[in-house]
Amino acid sequence: MAAELAPDVVVLGTGMAGMCAATAAVEQGAQVLVLERAPTIGGSAAISGGYVWTARNLDSLRNEDAGEFQRHGHFVVEGYEDVKRWLTGFTPPVTEELPTLYGRGHKFDIPLLFGTMAGTIVSAGGRILVGAEVTDVERDSDGVTLSVRRDGETSTVRARSLVLATGGRQADPEARRSLVEGGALLPPLRGNRFSRGYGAAIATGLGGRVNTANKGFYGHLFAAGVEPIAPIDFIIFSLFQSSEGVLLDADGRRFVDEKRGDHNNAAAVAAIGGRALLLWSQDVQERVSTTPWTVGTPLMDRWLFSRDRGGRTASAADAAELVPLVREWGYELQTALEDEAVRGRIGAGRIFAAEVVPAVTMTFGGIEVDDAGAAVDGHGEPIPGLFVAGGDTSDIYHRGYAGGLCAAAVTGRRAGTVAARLAATSERVAAPNA
Ligand SMILES: Cc1cc2nc3c(=O)[nH]c(=O)nc-3n(C[C@H](O)[C@H](O)[C@H](O)COP(=O)(O)OP(=O)(O)OC[C@H]3O[C@@H](n4cnc5c(N)ncnc54)[C@H](O)[C@@H]3O)c2cc1C
Fold first, then answer.
1. Which of 51, 205, 310, 377 is buried most, with the most CB atoms less than 10 Å from its CB?
2. What DSSP assignment string belongs to 174-204?
């Protein structure tokens, strides 16, 4: 890497938000430098299910997420059709549009998409550098100056605009612990291990605000004790079937409407301290073992897989038979079984059980932004030249979730476009209609 670089726009991160930001900036004619902390590009996006989706409309979004900090989710829903067309221009989706509970989307081949975007960036004179660590960032009226360490050398990069797209704070154990009531449990990470809150730290250092009061997160329930060793484990360990099961606290009480989905169940378990007992029936077990839960998820017996990998799991001929065993885990199942409604929901026949913990994919509390994706200062004013996208952005969601890839694509494309226009004019510009 040369000692001095002077691109128009620097983008930190090569996940969905960073790749979309860099590509959009290039489309505006900007010279772009993309810096990635990891030794490879892709972030969580590259190991994701690739399903670019969101809520069907704003009512569905509000119904899913009525949280007070859900401030920017409407951009995702309103931007879905346009960003889908834009992504399709790089590589067509691998499925037609498919429905989910309250939304719809297409599965994309993310490595192929990123390969095509990388080609676009580099063909336009941009650069993508992996293994690059930003050690210092300063800002003045003309832009930002970054110190970047790579291959044992430190270089200086000067740019008009900086886009933070580092994926959020979830790989920082303290950030994960803070999401769980009581702070006693360290929930597992379900995502790339490089998103440690660097974006938030840089924004704070430049006068930005981070909303840590938004404790929302996107994640799924894992059986207690499993340890992911490969990215595919993030998908196979996820007990999506909790939406058709029963979740009980230590006293044997239900505490959530499980039908709202496993991602919301994970948040509900975090809100009661991070542990719960999940039960489901033979009927549910057969369906989850023979039907992909979401587009492209592998057909696996998630209970068996979790058991074989050391997860706290059990099964018995009926729920009553599980009572003594789960008492050893710390759960009063007998109390729950005295309630007819709970018995009815658990179902009949062989019953499967797991003690579950929330595994965290992405924090919802992050860097506060305005409607153009600019980081804001303590007075709510945009910080010139500092833009935010994807998991780094605060308050896209709060108490629900309507797609991470679409959110990253919409906010990434927006940030890259505005960052490039600012670089071109050296003046503040309005949000694009991207
Ligand atoms: C197993 C799994 C399955 C998923 N499936 C889906 C799905 O089907 N649909 C969906 O909508 N969402 C899905 N998601 C969520 C989705 O992947 C994320 O919401 C999305 O990738 C967020 O995009 P991002 O660009 O903000 O973060 P990422 O894609 O994680 O990218 C962040 C990048 O920033 C890099 N970085 C971190 N720190 C620095 C730094 N200091 N300097 C430079 N670079 C840095 C990271 O290494 C990473 O490459 C899934 C996630 C996982 C883990």
1. 51
2. HHHHTTSTTS---PPB-S-TT-SSHHHHHHH
**CATH at 146:** 3.50.50.60
Is the CB of residue 246 less than 8 Å from the CB of residue 346? yes
Query: Does the Cβ of 86 fall within 6 Å of ligand 1?
Result: no
Burial status of residue 112 (CB atoms within 10 A of its CB: 0-12, 13-18, 19 or more):
middle
Q: How far is CA 404 from CA 122, 209, 283, 314, in A?
A: 26, 22, 31, 33
Q: Which residue has the tokens 């800002």?
A: 139
Contacts of 99 (CB under 8 A, 6+ apart): none
Which residues neighbour 403 within 8 Å (Cβ) at sequence distance 6 or greater? Answer: 51, 52, 53, 54, 55, 76, 103, 105
Ligand 1 pocket residue status of 188, Cβ below 6 Å: no
Residues 189 and 299 grouped into a single domain = no
Question: Average pLDDT for residues 388-412, to the nearest whole number?
Answer: 98
Atom of ligand 1 nearest to the CA of 171: 37
Cα(47) to centroid(ligand 1), Å? 8
Residue 356's domain spans which residues? 217-360
Is the whole model's pTM more than 0.85, yes or no? yes
Mean pLDDT of 218-246: 95
How many of the other CB atoms lie within 10 Å of CB of 193? 10
Q: Pick from 20, 44, 193 the residue to mutate for probing ligand 1's pocket: most ligand atoms within 8 Å of its CB.
A: 44
CA distance 126 to 165: 17
